[in-house]
Amino acid sequence: MKIECSKQKLQKAVLIAERATSHNLSLPVLKNLILEVKKNNLVIKSTNLEIGLEVELPAKVLEEGMTSCNPTTLSNFLTNLKDEDKITVELQNNNLLIKTSTYNTVIKSEEYEDFPLIPKISTTNKLKLKNTDLVYGLKSVIYAAAVSDIKPEISSVYIYQNNNELIFVATDSFRLAEKKLTISNQNKDVDFRLIIPLKNAAEIIKVFEGEEGELELCSDSNQLSITSVGIHLTSRLIDGIYPDYRQIMPKTSTSTITLSKDDLGQVLKMANIFSGKFNQIKLDVDAAKEQIIIYSASSDIGESTATIKAKIEGNDFSAHYNARYILESFQSIPALNLLIGMTEPNRPLLIQGTENKSFSYIIMPVNR
Protein backbone atom coordinates (compact mmCIF):
# COMPACT_ATOMS: atom_id res chain seq x y z
CA MET A 1 0.00 0.00 0.00
CA LYS A 2 1.10 3.55 -0.72
CA ILE A 3 -0.83 6.82 -0.55
CA GLU A 4 -0.44 10.57 -0.42
CA CYS A 5 -2.93 12.42 1.78
CA SER A 6 -3.59 15.45 3.97
CA LYS A 7 -1.94 15.28 7.39
CA GLN A 8 -4.86 17.12 9.03
CA LYS A 9 -7.48 14.77 7.59
CA LEU A 10 -5.46 11.68 8.53
CA GLN A 11 -4.95 12.98 12.07
CA LYS A 12 -8.69 13.64 12.50
CA ALA A 13 -9.60 10.19 11.15
CA VAL A 14 -7.13 8.47 13.50
CA LEU A 15 -8.48 10.38 16.53
CA ILE A 16 -12.04 9.30 15.67
CA ALA A 17 -11.19 5.66 14.97
CA GLU A 18 -9.04 5.41 18.09
CA ARG A 19 -12.20 5.73 20.22
CA ALA A 20 -13.31 2.18 19.37
CA THR A 21 -10.01 0.37 20.11
CA SER A 22 -9.89 -1.96 23.09
CA HIS A 23 -7.34 -3.87 25.16
CA ASN A 24 -8.79 -7.36 24.88
CA LEU A 25 -6.52 -10.14 26.19
CA SER A 26 -8.29 -12.84 24.18
CA LEU A 27 -8.22 -10.78 20.95
CA PRO A 28 -5.13 -8.52 20.96
CA VAL A 29 -5.83 -7.18 17.47
CA LEU A 30 -8.62 -5.00 18.92
CA LYS A 31 -6.05 -2.63 20.41
CA ASN A 32 -4.92 -1.60 16.92
CA LEU A 33 -6.21 0.32 13.93
CA ILE A 34 -6.67 -1.33 10.54
CA LEU A 35 -5.54 0.79 7.59
CA GLU A 36 -6.98 -0.35 4.26
CA VAL A 37 -6.27 1.41 0.97
CA LYS A 38 -8.69 0.74 -1.87
CA LYS A 39 -9.83 2.69 -4.92
CA ASN A 40 -9.42 6.39 -4.06
CA ASN A 41 -9.68 6.17 -0.30
CA LEU A 42 -7.97 5.20 2.92
CA VAL A 43 -10.33 3.44 5.34
CA ILE A 44 -9.34 3.26 9.02
CA LYS A 45 -11.17 0.59 11.02
CA SER A 46 -11.49 -0.18 14.73
CA THR A 47 -13.81 -2.05 17.06
CA ASN A 48 -14.16 -3.01 20.72
CA LEU A 49 -17.00 -5.45 19.89
CA GLU A 50 -19.51 -2.97 21.41
CA ILE A 51 -19.06 -0.37 18.70
CA GLY A 52 -17.26 -0.49 15.37
CA LEU A 53 -15.89 2.41 13.34
CA GLU A 54 -14.87 2.87 9.73
CA VAL A 55 -13.49 6.32 8.93
CA GLU A 56 -12.90 7.06 5.27
CA LEU A 57 -10.75 9.86 3.87
CA PRO A 58 -9.78 10.73 0.31
CA ALA A 59 -6.21 10.00 -0.76
CA LYS A 60 -4.06 9.76 -3.82
CA VAL A 61 -3.70 5.99 -4.11
CA LEU A 62 -0.41 4.79 -5.55
CA GLU A 63 -0.80 1.19 -4.38
CA GLU A 64 -3.63 -0.65 -2.63
CA GLY A 65 -3.08 -2.77 0.48
CA MET A 66 -3.79 -3.27 4.17
CA THR A 67 -1.93 -3.13 7.46
CA SER A 68 -2.44 -2.59 11.19
CA CYS A 69 -0.66 -0.36 13.69
CA ASN A 70 -0.73 0.98 17.22
CA PRO A 71 -3.16 3.94 17.37
CA THR A 72 -1.36 5.76 20.19
CA THR A 73 1.95 5.81 18.34
CA LEU A 74 0.38 6.99 15.09
CA SER A 75 -1.80 9.59 16.82
CA ASN A 76 1.07 11.02 18.87
CA PHE A 77 3.28 11.25 15.78
CA LEU A 78 0.64 13.09 13.74
CA THR A 79 -0.25 15.41 16.62
CA ASN A 80 3.37 16.51 17.01
CA LEU A 81 3.90 16.86 13.26
CA LYS A 82 3.88 20.65 12.88
CA ASP A 83 3.95 22.76 9.72
CA GLU A 84 3.24 19.78 7.48
CA ASP A 85 0.37 19.39 5.04
CA LYS A 86 0.94 16.54 2.59
CA ILE A 87 2.40 13.25 3.77
CA THR A 88 3.19 9.92 2.13
CA VAL A 89 2.22 6.68 3.86
CA GLU A 90 3.40 3.32 2.54
CA LEU A 91 3.90 -0.24 3.65
CA GLN A 92 7.56 -1.13 3.36
CA ASN A 93 9.15 -4.31 4.72
CA ASN A 94 5.89 -4.98 6.60
CA ASN A 95 6.17 -1.68 8.49
CA LEU A 96 4.46 1.66 8.05
CA LEU A 97 6.75 4.25 6.50
CA ILE A 98 5.60 7.88 6.80
CA LYS A 99 7.44 10.57 4.85
CA THR A 100 7.09 14.35 5.11
CA SER A 101 9.28 17.24 4.06
CA THR A 102 11.04 16.93 7.44
CA TYR A 103 10.57 13.37 8.73
CA ASN A 104 11.18 9.85 7.53
CA THR A 105 9.49 7.70 10.18
CA VAL A 106 8.87 3.97 10.54
CA ILE A 107 6.00 2.69 12.71
CA LYS A 108 5.89 -1.02 13.41
CA SER A 109 3.01 -2.89 11.76
CA GLU A 110 0.92 -5.47 13.59
CA GLU A 111 -0.93 -8.63 12.57
CA TYR A 112 -4.49 -7.99 11.41
CA GLU A 113 -5.78 -11.36 10.21
CA ASP A 114 -7.90 -11.90 13.36
CA PHE A 115 -9.64 -8.53 13.11
CA PRO A 116 -13.42 -9.17 13.21
CA LEU A 117 -15.77 -8.00 10.49
CA ILE A 118 -17.64 -4.79 11.26
CA PRO A 119 -21.28 -5.69 10.55
CA LYS A 120 -23.18 -4.29 7.58
CA ILE A 121 -26.92 -4.00 8.13
CA SER A 122 -29.34 -4.61 5.29
CA THR A 123 -32.86 -3.61 6.25
CA THR A 124 -35.67 -1.22 5.34
CA ASN A 125 -35.77 0.04 8.94
CA LYS A 126 -34.01 3.33 8.14
CA LEU A 127 -34.19 6.91 9.27
CA LYS A 128 -32.47 10.07 8.03
CA LEU A 129 -31.87 13.15 10.16
CA LYS A 130 -29.40 15.93 10.71
CA ASN A 131 -26.16 15.05 12.41
CA THR A 132 -26.71 17.85 14.92
CA ASP A 133 -30.20 16.53 15.79
CA LEU A 134 -28.88 13.10 16.78
CA VAL A 135 -26.19 14.60 19.01
CA TYR A 136 -28.62 17.14 20.51
CA GLY A 137 -31.24 14.50 21.24
CA LEU A 138 -28.77 12.17 22.94
CA LYS A 139 -27.15 14.94 25.00
CA SER A 140 -30.57 16.15 26.14
CA VAL A 141 -31.32 12.91 28.03
CA ILE A 142 -28.19 10.75 28.46
CA TYR A 143 -27.33 12.04 31.95
CA ALA A 144 -30.62 10.59 33.27
CA ALA A 145 -29.76 6.98 32.31
CA ALA A 146 -28.84 4.44 34.97
CA VAL A 147 -25.09 3.86 35.36
CA SER A 148 -25.42 0.30 36.68
CA ASP A 149 -25.73 -2.58 34.19
CA ILE A 150 -28.04 -4.58 36.47
CA LYS A 151 -31.03 -3.49 34.34
CA PRO A 152 -29.66 -3.09 30.80
CA GLU A 153 -32.89 -1.58 29.47
CA ILE A 154 -32.57 1.51 31.69
CA SER A 155 -28.78 1.70 31.50
CA SER A 156 -29.38 2.98 28.00
CA VAL A 157 -30.98 5.62 25.80
CA TYR A 158 -34.28 4.75 24.15
CA ILE A 159 -35.05 6.29 20.75
CA TYR A 160 -38.30 5.81 18.88
CA GLN A 161 -40.29 7.42 16.09
CA ASN A 162 -43.83 8.68 16.59
CA ASN A 163 -45.22 10.09 13.33
CA ASN A 164 -43.05 13.12 12.53
CA GLU A 165 -41.27 13.13 15.90
CA LEU A 166 -38.14 11.33 17.01
CA ILE A 167 -38.23 10.85 20.78
CA PHE A 168 -35.20 10.32 23.04
CA VAL A 169 -35.72 8.91 26.56
CA ALA A 170 -33.48 7.98 29.48
CA THR A 171 -34.25 7.07 33.09
CA ASP A 172 -32.58 5.61 36.16
CA SER A 173 -35.99 5.03 37.85
CA PHE A 174 -35.47 8.10 40.10
CA ARG A 175 -35.79 10.65 37.29
CA LEU A 176 -36.65 10.58 33.59
CA ALA A 177 -35.75 12.84 30.66
CA GLU A 178 -37.69 12.94 27.38
CA LYS A 179 -36.74 15.03 24.33
CA LYS A 180 -38.92 15.32 21.22
CA LEU A 181 -37.44 16.42 17.90
CA THR A 182 -39.48 17.14 14.79
CA ILE A 183 -38.20 15.28 11.74
CA SER A 184 -39.40 15.64 8.16
CA ASN A 185 -39.77 13.44 5.07
CA GLN A 186 -39.82 10.21 7.05
CA ASN A 187 -41.56 6.92 6.36
CA LYS A 188 -44.31 6.91 8.99
CA ASP A 189 -44.92 3.19 8.44
CA VAL A 190 -41.48 2.26 9.80
CA ASP A 191 -41.48 1.13 13.44
CA PHE A 192 -38.16 2.69 14.42
CA ARG A 193 -37.17 1.79 18.00
CA LEU A 194 -33.68 1.53 19.48
CA ILE A 195 -32.29 0.84 22.95
CA ILE A 196 -28.66 1.97 22.84
CA PRO A 197 -26.35 1.02 25.76
CA LEU A 198 -25.30 4.06 27.78
CA LYS A 199 -21.56 3.76 27.02
CA ASN A 200 -22.25 3.36 23.30
CA ALA A 201 -24.56 6.38 23.27
CA ALA A 202 -21.80 8.43 24.92
CA GLU A 203 -19.32 7.35 22.22
CA ILE A 204 -21.81 8.21 19.46
CA ILE A 205 -21.98 11.76 20.85
CA LYS A 206 -18.18 12.07 20.91
CA VAL A 207 -17.75 10.70 17.38
CA PHE A 208 -20.41 12.85 15.68
CA GLU A 209 -20.31 16.03 17.78
CA GLY A 210 -19.10 18.88 15.62
CA GLU A 211 -19.81 17.03 12.36
CA GLU A 212 -22.16 18.64 9.86
CA GLY A 213 -24.62 17.31 7.29
CA GLU A 214 -27.07 14.45 7.32
CA LEU A 215 -26.74 10.90 8.55
CA GLU A 216 -28.67 7.67 8.13
CA LEU A 217 -29.68 5.37 10.97
CA CYS A 218 -30.30 1.76 10.06
CA SER A 219 -31.11 -1.03 12.53
CA ASP A 220 -32.10 -4.60 13.01
CA SER A 221 -32.90 -6.33 16.31
CA ASN A 222 -29.25 -6.45 17.44
CA GLN A 223 -27.27 -3.70 15.70
CA LEU A 224 -27.48 -0.02 14.86
CA SER A 225 -25.61 1.45 11.91
CA ILE A 226 -24.98 5.20 11.62
CA THR A 227 -23.55 6.47 8.35
CA SER A 228 -22.50 10.02 7.52
CA VAL A 229 -19.97 11.48 5.11
CA GLY A 230 -16.73 9.65 5.82
CA ILE A 231 -17.88 7.90 9.03
CA HIS A 232 -19.64 4.56 9.49
CA LEU A 233 -20.39 3.50 13.08
CA THR A 234 -22.08 0.34 14.32
CA SER A 235 -23.35 -0.21 17.84
CA ARG A 236 -24.73 -3.16 19.74
CA LEU A 237 -28.36 -2.68 20.81
CA ILE A 238 -30.16 -3.93 23.89
CA ASP A 239 -32.50 -6.76 22.90
CA GLY A 240 -35.40 -6.02 25.22
CA ILE A 241 -38.48 -3.90 25.83
CA TYR A 242 -38.13 -0.42 27.26
CA PRO A 243 -40.48 0.31 30.21
CA ASP A 244 -43.71 2.09 29.29
CA TYR A 245 -42.62 5.34 30.93
CA ARG A 246 -45.66 7.26 29.66
CA GLN A 247 -47.77 5.69 32.41
CA ILE A 248 -45.91 7.73 35.03
CA MET A 249 -45.82 11.02 33.10
CA PRO A 250 -48.06 13.47 35.01
CA LYS A 251 -51.23 14.32 33.08
CA THR A 252 -52.39 17.17 35.34
CA SER A 253 -50.96 19.31 38.14
CA THR A 254 -52.56 20.58 41.35
CA SER A 255 -49.82 23.22 41.69
CA THR A 256 -47.96 25.01 38.88
CA ILE A 257 -44.91 27.22 39.39
CA THR A 258 -43.39 29.62 36.85
CA LEU A 259 -40.01 31.08 37.79
CA SER A 260 -36.59 32.10 36.50
CA LYS A 261 -34.26 29.19 35.68
CA ASP A 262 -31.24 31.26 36.72
CA ASP A 263 -32.79 32.20 40.08
CA LEU A 264 -33.68 28.60 40.90
CA GLY A 265 -30.31 27.36 39.68
CA GLN A 266 -28.40 29.79 41.90
CA VAL A 267 -30.43 28.82 44.98
CA LEU A 268 -30.09 25.08 44.28
CA LYS A 269 -26.32 25.35 43.87
CA MET A 270 -26.10 27.10 47.23
CA ALA A 271 -28.47 24.60 48.86
CA ASN A 272 -26.43 21.72 47.47
CA ILE A 273 -23.44 22.83 49.57
CA PHE A 274 -25.41 21.89 52.69
CA SER A 275 -27.41 18.98 51.27
CA GLY A 276 -25.11 16.14 52.38
CA LYS A 277 -24.00 13.15 50.36
CA PHE A 278 -27.54 12.46 49.10
CA ASN A 279 -28.03 16.03 47.74
CA GLN A 280 -31.36 16.23 49.53
CA ILE A 281 -33.33 19.49 49.80
CA LYS A 282 -36.79 20.36 51.06
CA LEU A 283 -39.01 22.36 48.72
CA ASP A 284 -42.00 24.23 50.19
CA VAL A 285 -44.52 26.06 48.01
CA ASP A 286 -46.49 28.91 49.59
CA ALA A 287 -49.22 29.78 47.09
CA ALA A 288 -50.64 32.72 49.09
CA LYS A 289 -47.28 34.51 49.31
CA GLU A 290 -46.27 33.36 45.80
CA GLN A 291 -42.91 32.08 46.94
CA ILE A 292 -41.00 28.84 47.29
CA ILE A 293 -38.68 28.06 50.17
CA ILE A 294 -35.72 25.73 49.67
CA TYR A 295 -34.07 24.28 52.77
CA SER A 296 -31.03 22.04 53.08
CA ALA A 297 -29.09 20.85 56.11
CA SER A 298 -26.15 18.66 57.01
CA SER A 299 -25.13 17.75 60.55
CA ASP A 300 -21.47 17.96 59.48
CA ILE A 301 -21.59 21.28 57.63
CA GLY A 302 -24.59 23.46 58.50
CA GLU A 303 -27.86 24.53 56.94
CA SER A 304 -29.31 27.00 54.44
CA THR A 305 -32.74 28.45 53.70
CA ALA A 306 -33.58 30.52 50.61
CA THR A 307 -36.80 32.11 49.34
CA ILE A 308 -37.63 32.72 45.67
CA LYS A 309 -40.52 34.75 44.28
CA ALA A 310 -42.54 32.84 41.69
CA LYS A 311 -45.88 32.81 39.93
CA ILE A 312 -47.87 30.04 41.63
CA GLU A 313 -51.24 28.61 40.63
CA GLY A 314 -52.87 25.98 42.82
CA ASN A 315 -52.25 24.58 46.28
CA ASP A 316 -49.42 24.68 48.81
CA PHE A 317 -46.94 21.87 48.40
CA SER A 318 -44.03 20.33 50.30
CA ALA A 319 -41.63 17.51 49.35
CA HIS A 320 -37.96 16.49 49.38
CA TYR A 321 -35.88 16.16 46.19
CA ASN A 322 -32.35 15.51 44.98
CA ALA A 323 -30.95 18.97 44.13
CA ARG A 324 -28.35 17.62 41.71
CA TYR A 325 -31.03 15.79 39.72
CA ILE A 326 -33.00 19.03 39.29
CA LEU A 327 -29.91 21.03 38.30
CA GLU A 328 -28.81 18.48 35.69
CA SER A 329 -32.02 18.99 33.73
CA PHE A 330 -31.26 22.69 33.15
CA GLN A 331 -28.69 21.86 30.43
CA SER A 332 -31.58 20.56 28.29
CA ILE A 333 -33.83 23.60 28.75
CA PRO A 334 -32.75 26.64 26.71
CA ALA A 335 -35.68 28.73 28.02
CA LEU A 336 -35.11 31.52 30.55
CA ASN A 337 -38.12 30.49 32.64
CA LEU A 338 -39.24 27.13 33.98
CA LEU A 339 -42.68 25.59 34.37
CA ILE A 340 -42.85 23.16 37.30
CA GLY A 341 -45.91 20.99 37.82
CA MET A 342 -46.73 19.14 41.06
CA THR A 343 -49.54 16.87 42.17
CA GLU A 344 -48.89 15.05 45.47
CA PRO A 345 -45.77 14.83 47.66
CA ASN A 346 -45.27 11.19 46.71
CA ARG A 347 -45.76 11.75 42.96
CA PRO A 348 -43.26 12.90 40.31
CA LEU A 349 -42.46 16.57 39.80
CA LEU A 350 -42.54 17.76 36.16
CA ILE A 351 -40.09 20.35 34.81
CA GLN A 352 -40.35 22.00 31.38
CA GLY A 353 -39.36 25.27 29.72
CA THR A 354 -42.11 27.85 29.36
CA GLU A 355 -41.45 28.61 25.68
CA ASN A 356 -40.92 25.06 24.42
CA LYS A 357 -42.48 21.84 25.75
CA SER A 358 -40.36 19.50 23.61
CA PHE A 359 -38.30 18.56 26.68
CA SER A 360 -39.94 17.03 29.74
CA TYR A 361 -38.18 15.99 32.92
CA ILE A 362 -39.77 14.20 35.85
CA ILE A 363 -38.13 13.56 39.18
CA MET A 364 -39.36 11.41 42.05
CA PRO A 365 -39.36 12.78 45.61
CA VAL A 366 -36.95 11.22 48.11
CA ASN A 367 -37.61 10.05 51.65
CA ARG A 368 -36.38 12.30 54.43
Structural class: alpha+beta
Strand fraction equals 35-45%
Radius of gyration: 25 Å
The overall number of domains is 3
Protein name: Beta sliding clamp
Pfam families: DNA_pol3_beta, DNA_pol3_beta_2, DNA_pol3_beta_3
Organism: Candidatus Vogelbacteria bacterium RIFOXYD1_FULL_46_19
GO cellular component, one term: DNA polymerase III complex
Defining traits:
368 residues, alpha+beta, DNA Polymerase III, Chain A, domain 2, 9-stranded antiparallel beta sheet, 6 helices, 17% helix, 3'-5' exonuclease activity
Descriptive account of the structure:
With 368 residues, the protein is of the alpha+beta class. The protein has 3 domains: 2-108, DNA Polymerase III, subunit A, domain 2 (DNA Polymerase III, Chain A, domain 2); 126-245, DNA Polymerase III, Chain A, domain 2 (Roll); 249-363, DNA Polymerase III, Chain A, domain 2, CATH 3.10.150.10. It is built from 6 helices and 26 strands. The chain has helices at 7-17, 71-79, 131-141, 198-208, 261-273, 323-328, and strands at 2-6, 33-38, 41-47, 51-58, 60-63, 65-69, 86-92, 95-99, 104-108, 126-130, 156-162, 165-171, 175-182, 193-197, 214-219, 223-228, 231-236, 255-260, 280-286, 291-298, 302-309, 311-314, 317-322, 337-342, 349-353, 359-363. The strands form 4 sheets. A 9-stranded antiparallel beta sheet has the order 14-11-12-13-26-25-24-18-22. Helix 1 (7-17) runs antiparallel to helix 2 and helix 3 packs across helix 4 (198-208). The protein starts with a strand and ends in a 5-residue tail after the last strand. The mean pLDDT is 94. Its main location: cytoplasm. This is Beta sliding clamp. Residues 1-118 form the DNA polymerase III beta sliding clamp N-terminal domain. It comes from Candidatus Vogelbacteria bacterium RIFOXYD1_FULL_46_19. InterPro entries: DNA_clamp_sf, DNA_polIII_beta, DNA_polIII_beta_C, DNA_polIII_beta_cen, DNA_polIII_beta_N.
